Records
---
Amino acid sequence: MTTLLEVENLSRSFGGLVAVKDVSFSLRAGRITALIGPNGAGKTTCFNLVAGALKPTSGRVLFEGRQIDNSPPETVCRMGIARTFQIVRPMREMSVLENAMIGAFSWTRNVSEARSKAYESLESVGLAAKAHARTDQLTLPDRKMLETAKALSTRPKLLLLDEVMAGLRPTEAAGIVGVLQKLAEGGLTILLVEHVMRIVMEVASHVVVLHHGAKIAEGPPEEVVADPKVLESYLGAGFHA
Amino acid sequence: MQKKFDRGLERTRWLAGITVFAVLGLVGLLANPYVISLMTIVLLFTFLGQSWNLMLGIGGQLSIGHALFVGLGAYSVGVLYVKYGISPWVGLLTGMILAGSVGASIAWLSFRFEVRGIYFALLTIAAAEFARIMFSGWEFVGAMQGLFFAAPTGGIEISMLRGDARFYYFVALALAALGIIGTEFISRSYLGYVWRAMRDDESAARALGVRTFQHKILVISLSAATAAAGGGVLALVQGSIFPDSIMGMGLSVDVLIGPVVGGLGTTFGPLVGSLAAIPLNHLMSALGDSLRIPGLNNITYGVVLISVIWFLPDGIWPAIVRLCKAIQGPPTAWLWQSRKVEE
């Protein structure tokens, strides 16, 4: 299997606060990798560094061998990395379908081509029936899926998902897990930032654990959850399974 | 199914547009000189409103200094025609190129240094005021005394864009139609989608691959160039150019009244808004004169503006659309609703 994205010794500080400290990991093509850690572990910072929304203080991010950490988000997107936002941000005045069309304009100027790609993206996340709704008529899980559909329309090679499951009921989350698994089967590489451990166990084949900005563990989910350091970071010292 | 409905709606929209312009054409042929001159101004401000609407209603960039671009268009036509006898067509083109480049430069400078939103709007005011003061002191362009066009000889000369009031009415009508068709065309092209995305959420749009820096410059320079075309014709219609009226804050505000009252970001909003606001202003002005109540027009204007913003915050045109939906019943209601989002 080939490596799609490589993060090398990535650090980022905000003033005196070091949010991400010397983190390295790599993403293999066609696999779902999860980036987990307790609140404030630096997951979202790390995610934003990869997506081009933040510049690293030191270290590099390589995508298909090319350095991307100094590129603005629109360039990163055009190279094949699409992201979602933790707080859903639909374009309010545009319909669900139109929202899903925007991403397609990164590779085409043909409106009808963009429209059919948008239908396809909405189809793959189960939103096709609501294509003509307004975004404020959607439920929260649907809005999260719309974020994913918008990202899929850019034809990404790598999909970055920022807490798509946060705030959802277990049954709603289960639906999203199904969607992600299907996307991965279709050959898409996914990096998932997630807080909910149970879902990560179910969907990810590789897990990277951050704590206080540093990587403390990495490996298959079942190994990672048995790691005493991981348990300690989540539950505090002295708690061992 | 959706497609079939869309096509039906499409036909209604085209029919409505053609009917409106047919009526406006008849007005030009039959109305008395007062109505003609009033409607010429309404149509010109429809076009100027359209250009401003493109920038804020679709592109999401607020300008309160559109008088700068209007003025550049007017002066380009005025200077070339009055001083050198060059056809206003050349003046219009020159003005559009000039205003487009000035708009692009302001945008580039501003966004290069991350000045955006309301701060960008302040910058547009500053640029317009700067230009007004500069033109007020510039002898070559007439300074405070302004520029005057020779009175029309009566005949219609299309190559020189000169003619009587009725001729200018039809020029303004053509311009307004062009503005509406152009807006509709841009709205449906990829630019429309990308610009609306940028308007609704710039950083989300960037994450989806939209090069917002370039697109902001493009939408602003296009809006500036079209405003200059409107300004050039406005100068010909008025027969004179004064820096305080063509480049003043008052004009910047007049430009945005139409789209704000009519409906921001909609194709027909500027026309509906101008039709409502400008005749009212003139009527109240005349009434104020005969009743000896100076400023009656301004008071009424203020009351109407506040009422529109209070009761119909998204403008008159969307309210008309909602009314049609209520009359036509549920199946089409759903259609209008989905169309409203597309607009």
Note: The radius of gyration of chain B is 20 Å.
---
Amino acid sequence: MTTSAQTVFAPARATTAADSATLRRKQGFQHGGWFVAPFLVLFTLFVIWPLLRGVYLSFTDANISGDGASFVGLDNYREALDDPLMWDALGHSAYFTLLVVPCITVLAFLLAMLAHHIERGKWLWRLCFFAPFLLPSTVAGNLWQWLFNPGTGMINHVFGIETPWLTDKSYAMLAIVITTLWWTVGFSFLLYLAALQSIPDHLYEAAKLDGANAWHRMVHITLPMLRNITGLVIALQILASLQVFDQAVVMLDFGPGPENATRTFVQYTLEEGFTSYRVGYASAISIIFFVLIAAVALARMWLLRNREEGAAR
Amino acid sequence: MGRPGLNRRQLLATAGGITVAGSFGFAALGTGADALASSADTRVRYWNLFSGGDGSNMIAMLDAFRAANPDIDVKDSTLQWGNPFYTKLAMAAAGNRAPDLGVMHLGRVPGFSPGRLLDPWDVGLLARYGVREADFDPALWQRGVIDGQLYALPLDIHVQLCFYRKDVLKKAGLLGSDGRIVPVTSTDDWFAVLKEAKKATKKGLQTIGLWVNDQNFQWWFFVAFYTQLGGTWFDAAQRRVTFDTDKAVQVLEFLRRHITDGYADPALGSVNAEQFVNGAPFAWEGNWSVPVYSGAKLDYGAIPLPPVFGEQATHAESHSFVLPHQSDRGGGTNEAAHRLAAYVVTHAQQWAAGGHIPAYTPTLSTPAYKKLDPQSEYVSAMTHQATEPKVWFAGSTGILAQRIGPIVVSSTLGSAKPDTVARRMKSELATLLAMKNPMDGRTAAQGGTAA
Amino acid sequence: MTTKAWTPSQIILTLLATAVSLVFLSPFAWALFTSLKSETEAVEVPPHWLPENWTGQAWTALFETGNITNWFVNSLVVSVCVTSVVLLVSALAGYGFARTEFRGKGVLMGVVMAGLMISPAVLGVPLFTTVQQMGMVDTYWGMILPQCAPAAMVYILYKFFQGVPRELEEAAFIDGAGRWRVFFTIVVPLARPSLAAVGIFTFIASWNNFLWPYMVTNNPDLMTMPNGIATVMNSYGIQWAQLMAGGLMAGLPLIVVFVFFQRQIVAGVAHTGLAGQ
């Protein structure tokens, strides 16, 4: 084994060349730019450059063919602020987020509590609750489109109802929300499960000795210990839900839904850019969307920092 | 090496290495498995949007073409109709990876930037394969000509029809002595017919399916009846909106009344075909439903949408072949694309079985075509077409249809009042008229391409 | 805890979990049974769970039309390439940010963190025009490379490398080992669990990715499974039995992977999740 040989000889060498060793140690951690370089090249090409390009395009009337764009100043932004379809789309994404986030958080927590407290077959419950997450979004969308189908679909049949899920504007978004819950709750469920398992047992045992019942243990130990992970789950869900696209378009055959009721923001940007060929305008609304997403992310960081400071005090 | 696990680990590492290397190699080749496997000299990539009966007819025609031209490999791909198809076609052309041959609705051609996203046909080459301008309706042929070049080769005309079940109408006493539906010339006539038909309809079925929640169908029906009333959209210079809100209100109230009087059920809006097959007396659908209903062995007929406002007019569009833009278009593949398009256009008998009226007029006069039923019952629709205005934002599932379709639906379903909806339609038309075509920065009034 | 008692509360919880699991699994069952019906039986009204005539026609038709096998290969190629590039690049970058010094590190780290907020969903249109300029529309590279710069994975590995004791590397440096050798022979083996988590998640994300491949590929020959299933139609119209069979084929590989690597995946979620708290 070469490594043990090196260890044996190392001290002797170190004594004779202590200076150069220190130098080598220092050098070892310096000029790390080469480690970061490959990532930075890809990151610059496919993240930073598109962002800058998006900002530039948003001030032009560029079209899909990629040539002949001219500068139009703030026209695109002015149009966007006045565009009822953009506000509608933003409203739909926000409405979806508002419905999905609380449902998924609560459901994920309950499922995790269930799986955590059952002693037998943990792997089985984990598999059952997580499996839908492993499907591609389009497969999940197709599957539920089929389940919601009038006449031939199982949902109306099982519950004995005749709800026009995907053809009525008051139900279509709800159908997408139900699909999303089934499809994505597994990820948050695993996060909660991991957090539950990382709570030290001795806390519960101490509480038991103090005579706390199950309810008290949950309110005074489990829930406080899950605060951080809940914050993470909510933040991740808000960011993901605002960007909803896949399942919504698949379930409604790439259309805007009954009376435009399910056209999401991402869908609208892509329609403007690729269907109406207005790349300049689509870039402008993308930038508006980016600012919104960044604001949500920064708000979370700010909340987190405040809380840490509060905890430190 | 003493540990037995090491061999397995080495094996796994080797297999992993081969997978990774193989993947990178495959990605570097870059053409996909299907193209690698193709052995023909010339491979034509052809995109269409035909599914259902159209899809199987197209496949039959392609198979016949393949049998006649064994040296040409046709790779046909069917993309989802409507937005997804046009989006993909535009993006492929913009990214310079366009297929060799594509299908488009004729109404979409002016807005699809001929010259940028489309390449012109080589008319001489087409003639060599048997396609000549003289064999087409001149107006139809001219719709594909922009700036003197042919960009779209018409394949057919397709129209919206009123399908009716002869068995049900017979019971209701609504069939004439010729075995066809009694003539309808006013809205009163029409609702009287529906009233009688409803009595003869089985329980659980609606009287008529007219796609009440579908923004495309509702828009097409609107165009048809608005044209029957003699309504117009823009003035000749395309500077002013001439949309008549009073006429629009009449049409919207007419469409809405099918629901309020209980003839159409919004809950069954997406399953009209199934309802018709199960015995619903009426369905308003495109002629592409003919193979579906004929295949189900129904006793049915089909007329153009009834002239309830006096004049005959029914919504019509056309499928056409286009050459999506390739910067290096030419050579054997391009010739093969011409050959394929010409073959399909001139062998349109099979296509007519799908309910479409062939654009290649020699087909219409063949005895085989005249025998087709119910095609012969509605072939007259060809002479009174209601089409969308000829502007860059029009055409099947174009911006116009996307913007206005949902507004029409909101009236039909009762979420908005007809007069409010008519005003919204008018203001939307004004917005669109003022809008610049993103491809050339010109409005409809300035637009050379649309003229 | 080798023998677990069936206390009343355990029985209730198990029954509850069974019921919930059935609800979660029933859509899979519905897909499977639909795929084993004939197309006409699949659309019968009212619907019924089990096929009256069991038939594999949807599955054979799926393989005969050919597209699905192409897409499967494409999915595999793209996911393998993305996963290997991401592993290499983000391990290097995570280590670089966590352990080495270079000018502008703080600023660069901030920029990378800002990258967490950018995705093809947010900036798809400009990203497409960028890739269009590079001439990579409808190519494998156009699909692969933009998926290879995930700031999140760099962040996860950065967090991990920060927690590794410095002494191991220092000892090796004193022995005269070069930086790259230290990285590949000492640091990478230590990071194996984290790398496994990153690798598995990248693979899942890439296999299931729809939005970006949807934007950048139009040629059906090059499409991946999720994209092909959603955008390319069967020429005979929507055939639900085939659609369900195709969906199962797209979804099953990952479910099988999950069954085999459940421990690692759960640990991976825990690891990444807890890192993000």
Note: The CA atoms of residues 407 and 421 of chain B lie 6 Å apart.
---
Amino acid sequence: MAQCTLKPDLEFARELTEAGGESLKQCFQCATCSVACPLAPANAPYPRKEMVWASWGLKDKLRADVDLWLCHNCGNCSDLCPRGAKPADMMAAARNVIYKDLTAPSIVGKWMSKPSGLPILFAIPALLWLFVWWIRASCNNGEWFPRAADGRIVFGQIFYGDYTIDPIFMITFFGACYILLRGVMKLWAMFKPEGRMTVIGKTKCWVWHLWDVLWDEIITHRKFNDCEDGPATGKNTPNRKYGHAILVWSFVILAFVTAVVALGHWGGKVIPLIKIETPMPLTFPVKILANIGALMLLCGLALLTARRLRLNPACQGSSFYDWYLLGIIWLVAVTGVLSQCFRLADAIKPAFVVYYLHLVFVWMLFAYLPWSKLGHLVYRTAALVYVRMYGRSN
Amino acid sequence: MSNAILVVGGGFSGLTAAIEAAELGHDVYIVEKSPWLGGRVAQLNKYFPKLCPPSCGLEIQFQRIRKNPRIKCLTLAEVVGLTGRKGDYSVRVRLSPRRTAPHNVDFSLLASTLEGQSPSEFDLGLCGRKGLYKSMPFAFPGRYVLDPSTLSKADAARVAGNKFLDLTEQEREIELNVGAIVVATGWKPYDVTRLTNLGAGSVKNCVSNMQLERLASPFGPTSGRIVRPSDGRAPHNVAFVQCAGSRDQNHLNYCSYICCMATLKHCLYLAEQNPESLITVYYIDLRAPGRYVNVLEKVKALPNVRFVKGKAADAVQAEGDRVRLTVEDAVRGEKLTLDYDLVVLATGMQPSLAGENPPLPVPLDEDGFIAGGEEAGIFAAGCARMPLDVTRSAQSGTAAALKAVQTVKGR
């Protein structure tokens, strides 16, 4: 009989515990969870095998495990778990620990992993935008809260698009994209088993699989419905689909609005016809769409936060990663809406201060995306594309 | 002051405690809630260790009770109040009306002519019972019970004139003076309706292990033929779901100790009745304590029994009234979805006192087992204290009797 030597990684087991998997040692491998999960495929279902790998500290096994990303964290497994081992929390924790290692520079992942890192995460953009404010105030004759020539409040006077906001956010955005791309390449390399893997039957390019994932799963949120098909748990667990879908759609709308405004601003320099001036009037279609997006964002957040607060801690806990993401989106949404309100109410000092905070939080949301729970936006998508390429999808 | 001993519960441990104390010369009262003695053992087809029918062991106990004038059996009786202290308790007991004459009148002919039916408690709802009924042929005391709520109008007219039946008998209360108390209130099968993922008792041909005992019993609803309740056909493919509601913090947070052995016994019943049947036992861990391991070896050697490690966590109705189980074979790492003719949920034992508020000053642990109370002269025996098999229940009954005797001795 072939001998197999297990190399437990104690550090990894400890990290998992810190990231929200503290109950995993309760597991006695009864396999209820694999049955509870309606998404788990018949061959090599999850999360039982992940539970035993986690408790043995088998880091390499978990890192190479694509199933970790198939899980949509509905919590059926934890609801039915006879031991309160919370497999759903372990899966989430394992994903968070993997973000932390996957993405360079890993120091940001360390800060992101616990509340004590928050001050640094906040200080970086806070100082950056304060510095911008200081420079621009000097350009405005030392006036920190200037008004436009016609007396209106125009944020662009301090946070001027051409030289400050746009370049900084473009660097941030493309930097995050580059970091994520490297992360995705690393993730796929980890998934690939040693040796050659052959796919029998028709194959298609990953781009088409990505297209399928976007249309079949992300736009429709189909997997959230599939999550409801598990065995009756007898516990009231509301479908997360609506809160999550509203939030995702509001992100899409707000991203679209931002792109239109950027196009209007920069494109307007070449083709004056499409020029968009900010602030836009409230009745301008783009502005209307932006405000609809903001309202949807608040609704989605309220639904998801209410659900998370109602979770039974005996079955499903909420880790720092969960609260960080909800918290930062709340801050972005609230400061965004408030800065518009203060601007319209002509309260100049609160308007500028809140807008400054808005920039800080938006920067935090995007710059730290690869290390935060929001990384699932890219990493889970990448994993879903991978499983389609290799035929492990349903 | 009293030298008498009260035994609450007339199951195997209670009977043992009562008989032991009485044979040492003490007056003993047995207070039994149901109409007959014998408790859960009486419902079994066969019981460990020797796999003999319950009549075998219980008949000996009943003989000893019959012969011993010191033992007074109160059936359809419940303790409703307790005052006093160790050595001098005053116990109020409520006696529900039996409505049949004190001597063992054979009502079988009359009962068979009645038409009204209620679900049989003794047969765990597998069949109905009449308004005038006895659980089984060797029931002790051998008296029928008349239950007016089950009688139809015609039934009521039929029983009205019978001089051995008294429809007007009322409930009454009596008071007993005792020095020590043995609490042998036993256990109840865990309520399957709480097992939502295992069908919550609404899936046809998905029965509990106690129901299977009734199906296998010669005095049960099928005269001992193990068949599917839905159509009376012998099952070919049978699955056992171990730990159904046991070792589960959502249900019973402990191992019920007996369900593994019960399932092994059921495998023997099935293999004996139908050697062609295919049996699968889905388990997390198998417990065969002490020499019971021999039974495990014997069942493992049967060609038609297969053991699969993995808890069946989903049971739904499939075509043809079959039961569809989903389970992960944790050794092979495969999720199986299979249909069975009959599925047996190996449900665990829950102490009868769980969720009750007994008028006895005994501390219960979070699961409802008795934990303490001995300083007050109250001693727990049998499954009221912890999950036990019949042998150990009897032993704990003897132990409780000895402690009770020591409490009242020398007054």
Note: The radius of gyration of chain A is 23 Å.
